Amino acid sequence: MTVADLTRPIEILLIEDDPADSRLTREALKENCAMTNLHAVANGFEALAWLRRQGRYRDAPRPDIILLDLNMPRKDGRQTLAEIKWDGDLRPIPVVVFTSSSAEEDIHQAYGLSANCYVIKPASLEEFLQVVKSVLEFWFSVAQLPTE
Question: What is the pLDDT of residues 61-77, one digit of tens each?
């Protein structure tokens, strides 16, 4: 699937506990990627309920891509990533770890848990907007993804 092939908006699940980063991501998408639907949840428990369409998320769309923060309360990004990648139905969804941590241990652990990509959140607004745009351009213009 590429952006040119899309007949519907890209469904993005943002798993992020920081409201400011959620807002920035939403702004980056609004500014750069008109064909997106951003859905945000604040922790791993909500994310897994969304992905498995449980409870109040029973009608949730299946995301085309997941943007995952590592450091969250309750169920952190590492635990969430592990559950996503251990679930045969969820495993094909690309997971981009999108976090402020540049620790080598976190990077190795994320890839060890089968993250598809590890991106460090930039500090400046302009760079943040550009990185979000670049990530989506790669996944939906360059990479070839399986259809559902």
Answer: 999 999 999 998 888 99
Give residue 112's identity as a one-letter amino acid code: G
C-alpha 66/C-alpha 57 separation (Å) is 16
- Phi and psi at 16, nearest 5°, equal -150, 130
Reported as a single tens digit per residue, the pLDDT across 95-146 is 999 999 999 999 999 999 999 999 999 988 889 888 988 888 898 888 877 7
Pair 133, 106: CB distance under 8 Å: no
Residue type at 23?
R
Query: For residues 142 and 123, what is the distance between their CA atoms, to the nearest angstrom?
Result: 26
40 DSSP β-pair partners: 14
